[in-house]
Every structure is written in structure tokens, then in C-alpha cells.
Design a protein that fits this description.
The complex is a heterodimer of chains A (about 120) and B (about 120). Helix content of chain A is about 0%, strand content about 55%. By secondary structure, chain A is mostly beta strands. Chain A is globular and about 50 Å long. The termini of chain A are far apart. Chain B has strands spanning about 5, 10-15, 20-25, 30-35, 45-50, 55, 65-70, 75-80, 85-95, 110, 115. The chains are: A mainly beta (about 120), B mainly beta (about 120). Chains A and B meet through strand 5, strand 6, strand 10 and strand 11 of A and strand 4, strand 5, strand 9 and strand 10 of B.
Chain lengths: ~120, ~120
């Protein structure tokens, strides 16, 4: 079945440091890939997406490129801020063949803490 | 644009009881999905509803059931509650073009209902 593996956390960085959170996936077909962010006490917010190989998703300084050859979708940001502290989830979405529905499969999440 | 709203925000129940959680989808969306997020883990897919029909189900027992209404809002019902049902329950809405075509539009989440079982 589908699965998503994220780098083990937590990750602690100083403000303005470079961020990489690794994400690899296993899925049949051609899934869409997403990064969601969850702040304390809140639901998940869509951060960025990519729907086909070599697509680059970007938002708020974060970027991720859909690499089909390495089945990866690593999240990067050149200079993190204290306000980026949150839990980050990598996810894939694939159409359910029998019903044309869709389901998200998530990784375990990576806790990011950015210190001033 | 109205986002996804869920109610209640918090709920405490005891083992064996039943619970109903509610979700209003984002305006313009016609599909609702429910997820269970245990503490410190990623969300797990429970099921999805489109045009008032269940449209896919994850690995959850039949005591987890749902409904979708003509205005696209939805309910999640859980019977015979167990301690392991304690979790954050997230609702997400999205738009699907037709019954046979789905371009996997992003799902937008509410803030969830925190369910605690004593």
C-alpha cells in the first residue's frame, strides 16, 4: 500500500538557518504530493503541492520538488524564522480506482523548533 | 471564503458511549473526508463522502460511520467508544469535478475536534 516516510525529528535550528526536511514515498501510479503544516492546537494548513514529476511547489519561502526517480519530495527553506516553528507533514494523494475518490496518506510529521 | 468549521472543539466521553462530530465544508467544495490523528502521529484516513455517498474507507471498523448532507456538511459517528479512540478528529473538504473524474484537488482542513475517552 501507499506510505510516506519523513526524516526523524525533532529538528531544532537557529533563526536564519537553512532547513531541509526529507520525505520519501511509496505508491503505485502517479500520486500528487503535498506538504502540510500544523501549528499547536490547530488543524493542518496546506503549505505547498506538486502534481507531477519535476513540478516544484513553493509558498512563503518554502520549496519542494517532485522527484519521481528517487520517490522524494524534500522540503527546503533558505532562512527560517521563529514563526516557522510547527509540525510539518508530507502527504500523498491518489485516486481510489473503484470509486474515483481520493485519500491522503501522511508521514509521521517532523517537529521544527526555531530559536531566536 | 468560509473555511472548514468543526464542532465541538473538545469532547469528553466514557467507554461504551456514542459520539457525533460535525463538519461544515468550505464554500464551493463538494467532498468531505475524515481523519483520525493520535497524539504525536500523522492523520489516518477514516472515510470520504461525495454526493452523500461513502466514497472510500480506510482501515477503521464499522462502528465508525458517517453522513453527508445535501449542503455538503458531514457528520462522523462513533459507537461503542474505546480508550484508543481518544484522538484529534479532522475534517477536510475539497472539490471534485464529476463522479468519474477526480484531479486530486488539495484538501482543506478544519481545526479538529479533540475527543477524550475516560
Amino acid at each position: 500500500g501507499d506510505s510516506v516516510t519523513q526524516m526523524e525529528g525533532p529538528v531544532t535550528l537557529s533563526e536564519e538557518a537553512f532547513l531541509t526536511i526529507n520525505c520519501t514515498y511509496t505508491a503505485t501510479g502517479y500520486p500528487s504530493l503535498f506538504w502540510y503544516v500544523q501549528y499547536p492546537g490547530e488543524g493542518l494548513q496546506l503549505l505547498l503541492k506538486a502534481t507531477k514529476a519535476d513540478d516544484k511547489g513553493s509558498n512563503k519561502g518554502f520549496e519542494a520538488t517532485y522527484r519521481k526517480e528517487t520517490t522524494s519530495f524534500h522540503l527546503e527553506k533558505g532562512s527560517v524564522q521563529v514563526s516557522d516553528s510547527a509540525v510539518y507533514f508530507c502527504a500523498l494523494s491518489r485516486t481510489i480506482k473503484e470509486t474515483s475518490g481520493s485519500r491522503l496518506t501522511f508521514g509521521e510529521g517532523t517537529q521544527l523548533t526555531v530559536n531566536p | 471564503e468560509t473555511g472548514v468549521t468543526q464542532s465541538p472543539t473538545h469532547l469528553i466521553k466514557t467507554r461504551g458511549q456514542q459520539v457525533t462530530l460535525r463538519c461544515s465544508s468550505q464554500s464551493g467544495h463538494n467532498t468531505v473526508s475524515w481523519y483520525q490523528q493520535a497524539l504525536g502521529q500523522g492523520p489516518q484516513f477514516i472515510f470520504q463522502y461525495y454526493r452523500e455517498e461513502e466514497n472510500g474507507r480506510g482501515n477503521f471498523p464499522p462502528r465508525f460511520s458517517g453522513l453527508q448532507f445535501p449542503n455538503y456538511s458531514s457528520e462522523l459517528n462513533v459507537n461503542a467508544l474505546e480508550l484508543d479512540d481518544s484522538a484529534l478528529y479532522l475534517c477536510a473538504s475539497s472539490f471534485r469535478q464529476t463522479r468519474t473524474f477526480n484531479s486530486n484537488q488539495p484538501q482543506h482542513f478544519g481545526d479538529g475536534t479533540r475527543l477524550s475517552i475516560l
